Amino acid sequence: MKRFIKHILFLIGVLLVLLFVLDALYTKVYRESVPRNKVANLMAYKGDAIDYVFIGSSRVDNTIDAALIERKTEKTAINLGVQGGKLDDYYLMLQLLVDKKIQTETVFIQLDYVYNIDGTSEILKSELMPYIENPIIDAYVKERDLSYKTLRYVPFVRYMKFDYKIGFREFFSSSIGKLPKTNLSNGYSPKYNSQGATLKYSLPTKMAATNSVIQKIEKLANDHQINLIFFTAPFCGATQNFEYIDQLKERFPTLIDYSRVFVDRDDYFYNCSHLNHKGAQEFTNLFVKAYLQTPPN
């Protein structure tokens, strides 16, 4: 019996050592290799300046071509939109900008139906795992994930839980220096043509009474003298309850509202709430002409 127990303890010990080694190896590769996602790219900045920063969900990720902005304005720009992003995620990205001491002229934040939504992006959360020791990221995960203690203190569990995003395939791609599909210095992830389904969408019928995360975003921007501007990207003409955006504008009078700008241009949409590449180029050009500086003649 004692021999059996010793054998079991030995196997447990070997497993723990293996988990510690794998955790250290994955973390080292993700932190030191060429960035393959927006979190890794942001964490690699060291006090750089970015004139225009765009934060939001896929409605920023698939909409704002930062490289086009740079060509038109001769200023630096970056798209930090994340798939499935919520206001908690926007706040985190703004916190990381401040933490990395990245100087910016203006931060534009996409504001629409997310005002009514709580929660976080699981995609973003997975990309945070290699940096969970960062105090800002640690606090974000601790508040929003019931398995925080396991993720934080049990080696390699964070990589196993989020294997679909930061598992062996991504680890291998990072270890050989494979570049991501998205040019992270731009951050724009284009959609092409149309999703194929009939264009339709419905905004909420009623606005939430308040949103504490928006208040945190505004306070952080004010405390660090960041010029913060909210904007709403286009929806297709078949969208129902546009009155929700009108209510949003009443609450945020300075909101830049482009929700209806392409209501007669279905060819600009991948689906009803996301522009395709053609629409994104037109929208980015429109945004530049209206709100961003243009280079001298």
SSE map:
Blueprint: H1 2-32, H2 38-43, E1 52-55, H3 58-61, H4 66-73, E2 77-79, H5 87-99, E3 106-110, H6 122-128, H7 135-144, H8 148-153, H9 157-161, H10 163-166, H11 168-175, E4 201-202, H12 212-223, E5 228-232, E6 239-240, H13 243-251, E7 256-257, E8 269-271, E9 274-275, H14 277-291
Parallel strand pairs: 1-2, 1-3, 3-5, 4-6, 5-7
Antiparallel strand pairs: 8-9
Helix pairs in contact: 4-14, 5-12
Protein name: SGNH/GDSL hydrolase family protein
Organism: Dokdonia ponticola
Task: Characterize the largest beta sheet: strand count, sense, and whether it forms a barrel.
Answer: 5 strands, parallel
Low-confidence stretches: none
Shape call:
elongated
Fraction of helical residues: 40-55%
User: Helices and strands, in N-to-C order?
Assistant: HHEHHEHEHHHHHHEHEEHEEEH
Overall tally of domains: 1
CATH fold node name: Rossmann fold
Organism: Dokdonia ponticola
Protein name: SGNH/GDSL hydrolase family protein
